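Anyone up for a design puzzle?
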């Protein structure tokens, strides 16, 4: 349009020249605009790639931490399972030992019970030696020991001395008139368990 040689044109030649200059300017700046656009796109792509890489790294770290945590939990579970197994074995051994001991105790109790029953039967029936005056002796029981303690039982000065005497004039319980004697008292003492 701007190069049209006709003298009379239905539009202004200045407008056509201005559009031609504008177009030439755009063609000149085309490379710059394309380079800027490509640089901008590369920048956005690099930012997107960097963000994607960061997310992937975080995901990998989280997965690694989760694997470590699961591995640790697995090791702890194995350790606890082993400890429980050992405790179960020890408990079984203890139960077996206790059962053996209780069986032994039951056997000894039964034996003692049988001996007592035999002794009672023998005492009730008599052993044939009743004429010697010996009392049947119980087996399995220990006799209790008695300890004799002496107390001071001397009469007080303000109390009149009243003592029982026999026909000879001697005191019955004290052993004499002149000096009072101490009475023995008895207390029960249990024998130590063996």
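Challenge accepted. My sequence:
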């Amino acid at each position: 349009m701007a190069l049209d040689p006709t003298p009379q044109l239905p539009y202004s030649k200045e407008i056509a020249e201005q559009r031609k200059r504008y177009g030439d300017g755009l063609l000149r700046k085309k490379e710059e605009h394309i380079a800027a656009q490509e640089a901008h796109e590369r920048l956005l792509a690099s930012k997107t790639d960097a963000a994607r890489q960061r997310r992937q790294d975080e995901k990998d770290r989280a997965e690694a931490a989760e694997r470590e945590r699961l591995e640790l939990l697995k090791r702890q579970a194995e350790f606890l399972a082993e400890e429980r197994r050992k405790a179960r074995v020890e408990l079984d051994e203890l139960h077996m030992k206790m059962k053996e001991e209780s069986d032994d105790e039951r056997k000894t109790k039964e034996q003692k019970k049988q001996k007592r029953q035999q002794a009672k039967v023998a005492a009730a029936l008599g052993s044939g030696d009743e004429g010697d005056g010996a009392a049947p002796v119980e087996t399995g029981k220990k006799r209790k020991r008695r300890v004799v303690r002496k107390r001071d039982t001397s009469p007080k000065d303000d109390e009149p001395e009243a003592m029982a005497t026999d026909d000879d004039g001697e005191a019955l319980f004290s052993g004499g008139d002149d000096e009072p004697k101490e009475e023995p008292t008895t207390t029960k003492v249990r024998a130590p368990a063996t």
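A detail worth pointing out: The first helix runs from residue 13 to 125.
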